Amino acid sequence: MTPRIALKFQVGARPLATILRRLVRVAFSLDAVLAPAATGTGLVLPPLPDDADGYLVTSLPEPMLAGLDRRGLLAFVRQRYVRYHVDLAAGEAAWLAGLSGSARSGIKRKAKKLAAANGGALDIRRYHDAAAFADFHPLARAVSATTYQEKLLGSGLPDDAASVRHLESLAEQGRLRAWLMFIADTPAAYLCCTADCESLCYTHVGHDPAHNDLSPGAVLQVEAMRDLFAERRFARFDFTEGEGQHKRQFSTAGTACVDVLLLRPTLANRATVAALRGFDSAIASAKRAATHPALTRLAKKIRR
Question: What's the rounded Cα separation, in Å, for the pair 177 and 127?
Fold first, then answer.
C-alpha cells in the first residue's frame, strides 16, 4: 500500500494543519542533483499504483522542471530552494577560507565561550560504529526530545524499533557518523549523519534550547566538519533539502531545486492544490508586507 504523506500548511517551523495523501515519493540524492543529466529535460517516473493519489518529487534540479512529464496530473511547485553542500575533497583550509570573515570570527568566539562554560575545553564525543551507536542513541534521544525539530516538525532522532534498526545497520556498514557535545557532562547537542553513495547527509540534528546562548549546534557542526576533512572518506557533506542560515553559512556550493506535487485530477485533489496554493500565496504576501518600512519601524517601536 502506498504510504500516506502529510502535506503541511506551515508558517516557518510551525505546522498549522495537514492534508494526508497517498504519494509515491521520488527523492533526488545529491549525487543525482549534481549529475550531468540533471541539466537535461527528462525524468522517468515509476509506475503509479492504483491506490496512490500521485507523486511527490523532491530536490528536482530546477532545469529539469520544464521537461517534467506530468502524465496528465495536476502539477504544483510546493517549494523552491537551494540544496547546499560542502566539497570535502577541497580540504579544511579551503573550506575555512571560503567562509566570510564574520563567520570565521563567530566560530572562534562561540567555541571559546562554550569551552569556558564547560571548564575550559570542548567536550565532543564521536560515535562512528555499531557498538558506539548503542551508546549514542539514548543520549541523543534525550537531547532530541527538547528540540523544535521534534516538537514542531516531528523530525527528531527516531526511537521506533524499525528506524533504530535501520540506523544500526548503517553503522554496521560504516555508513553512519554521529557526534554529541556535552556541557558539564550532560548531552547538549547531537548530529547524526548517514551516507548516501559518496555523500554524507545531514540527517538528524538538534540541540537543547536551554543552551541557545552558547550556540552548541554551530560549534558541533564545525568540529564534525573537521573530523570529516581529516577522515577523507566522503566526497561531499549534503545539507539535504530546504534552506537555512546555518546551511548557507557553512556550505561551499548549492544547486537550485524544487519540490513538485503531482496529483490525479480528482475533485478532492483539485481542492487540495487550490488550498495549498492559496495558503502559500498568502504567506508569501505576508512576508513581503512585513518588510515594508512602516511595519519595520512599528516593530522596532514595539520592541522598545
Answer: 6
Residue 247 is placed in which grid cell?
A: 546551511
CA gap 97, 83 in Å, rounded: 21
- Supply the DSSP string of 64-92, one letter for each residue: GSTT---TT-EEEEEEEEEEEEEEGGG-H
User: Which 3-state string (H, E, C) describes 110-132?
Assistant: HHHHHHHHCCCCCEEEEECCHHH
Exposed/middle/buried for residue 122 (C-beta within 10 Å: 0-12, 13-18, 19+)? middle
The Cα 177–Cα 195 span in angstroms is: 8
pLDDT in tens, 189-248: 999 999 999 999 999 999 999 999 999 999 999 999 999 999 999 999 999 998 889 999
Q: What value does the CA radius of gyration of the chain take, rounded to a whole number of Å?
A: 21
The one-letter amino acid code at 177 reads R
